[in-house]
């Protein structure tokens, strides 16, 4: 079972990462900064549990707050740009974060062993779960409780007025502004909220894998983060979940036996899905759940 | 001649022995994993080719002897971890929980090893630690000091500090005209950058070589000293780079007698081609252990001509020559990384025979622990080019090595420090 628990863990934190991008996409912001917030959450919570010996719940919370603080800061300059320029600017932010951690060396001796971030050598021994007797079933349950809470929060958000405001900004900024919506508040709030979710995801990722380094937070992961909600569909929050299951569960794990051909098929399947279901996996008839989860028209 | 009664008694006794000892298997399974896709796929391809050859050899010789004296065949499954930490961890969990494999060989990438070793139980018998409990004997991931992350993880990889120390001692003795050094590395590759900035440069300084632009602050002969300053004083590149003109120009401009090129084959060749194009070749070049492979000889044999590398594998013995041929027959190549896979399979066979394994699937956890204990107890093992000393408390190996240099499109032995 441990293997399947491991896959569920992967699907869990990738879903959170995708949801952080989903929140921004609702406001029309295509952000590649999510991986930067994810990295901040991973390193911050890892440092807190490994170096300071802080409880995982507190560490994840603080990591997410730090990530959301940086997201808040990024949110303001991001107001001035959109489209491809926003993509470039947020890639630059993620690269700054990645290179910061690439150079971060903060080693502390614990029980005769040096622990902490060690530049290009990475940050090892983030073993809070195993070292505190958490069984794989406990870890996966914990991750999925967080995922379900975030899914529910975003689902609920989409069914109240705030969700309509986010979508209104995403559909047409000028019209939204003409209706009295404060673009600054909406967009910066979405960026901050997305940063918070990505920060939690990063913390869970670091503690699940027990190791992070700068290579864990490349542009490829940023691309995945925005690909999940786009591939899954923005109609509702569950599209992101379906996309993560499709990519992480089926394409990456399910096709492992194909070796190098897996990567070819991986790309081909995504192209096919995007061609046949341009509005996302959520619209595939076999799911036919879109009506069930459809947001209420306000 | 036995009486019928005696025969019946013996048959009953044998049957009872088997029942009492539990079922015995006819196959002993092991698992391997490494990068079989992505830019580092040659590591996994080579490793699997040699694991296959080694297991074929064990089975041709009758297999592995079990606790009851019967012989069982060995079999293996090899998984692609794509040099990705998440995937490496997923495979470690899969092998440990979903298969009857008694031990794993791998992973190939140091980053994956650093990550996946962390999901294993740190200290054996610590009931509060829920990490995986399955022995792992790594063949390729060479970054310094990884095995001590868990008492379940062991490595049969070379000891680079010792290799470069001996190399520079030999260069200093045999080439008194070489006085100054300069170098660079691929900074986003942990093994290349770590070995360069913490091991190689310090080893050179220890043996009297001088950095070409004057001493680097805080750098001494001590391993790891001033490593950040080493990196900032060097001309570096990234693993994904394809253009090396700035770096090659800096190397040429340095005018040093000896260049240190600490990178994997893919960028080593790119860099050397540019350096050669600029006519900037020095009197001597030293490379990273991982570059003493067939890829460099395929990619840039002319430009690498003369480069010296310490390596724990070279076809200098009959056994090593045979493994190199078998690897080629299986679509891979033998180098200091992959050749260890052969040694690992043979080590595993010997340990299984020494500790008494039944292969009974219901005892898989108990037998994994026995194999782990057997690995930890090893003091020496027989390697392809000589005896390997085990560093028992760290799970590491001290492997014999030679210095090779690129000559006429091949890696040829330049010096054997044991002689």
* Shape verdict of chain B: elongated
Helix content of chain A: 55-70%
Portion of residues within helices of chain B = 40-55%
Largest interface summary = A-B, 41 and 37 residues
Order of helices and strands of chain B: HEHEEHEHEEHEHEHHEHEHHEHHHEEEEE
Oligomer: heterodimer
| Poorly predicted tracts of residues of chain A | none
CATH topology annotation of the largest domain in chain B: Rossmann fold
Structure description:
The complex is a heterodimer of chains A (298) and B (419). Chain A has 298 residues and is mainly α. Chain A has one domain. Chain A is built from 13 helices and two strands. Chain A is globular and about 60 Å long. The mean pLDDT of chain A is 88. The longest helix of chain B has 20 residues. In chain B, helix 13 packs across helix 14. The N terminus of chain B is likely disordered. Helices cover 42% and strands 17% of the residues of chain B. Chains A and B meet through helix 1 and helix 5 of A and helix 3, helix 4 and helix 6 of B.
SSE inventory with pairings:
The complex is a heterodimer of chains A (298) and B (419).
Chain A: H1 2-26, H2 34-50, H3 56-79, H4 84-103, E1 108-110, E2 113-115, H5 128-131, H6 136-157, H7 161-171, H8 173-178, H9 183-209, H10 219-232, H11 238-254, H12 261-276, H13 290-293
Antiparallel strand pairs in A: 1-2
Helix pairs in contact in A: 1-6, 1-9, 1-10, 1-11, 2-3, 2-4, 2-9, 3-9, 10-11
Chain B: H1 4-21, E1 27-34, H2 41-60, E2 64-65, E3 71-80, H3 85-98, E4 104-105, H4 110-117, E5 136-138, E6 153-155, H5 160-174, E7 180-185, H6 190-206, E8 210-211, H7 227-233, H8 245-254, E9 258-262, H9 265-277, E10 284-287, H10 294-299, H11 301-304, E11 308-311, H12 318-329, H13 339-355, H14 364-377, E12 380-382, E13 387-391, E14 396-398, E15 402-407, E16 410-415
Parallel strand pairs in B: 1-3, 1-4, 4-5, 5-6, 7-8, 7-9, 9-10
Antiparallel strand pairs in B: 2-3, 11-15, 12-13, 13-14, 15-16
Helix pairs in contact in B: 2-12, 2-13, 3-4, 5-6, 6-7, 8-9, 13-14
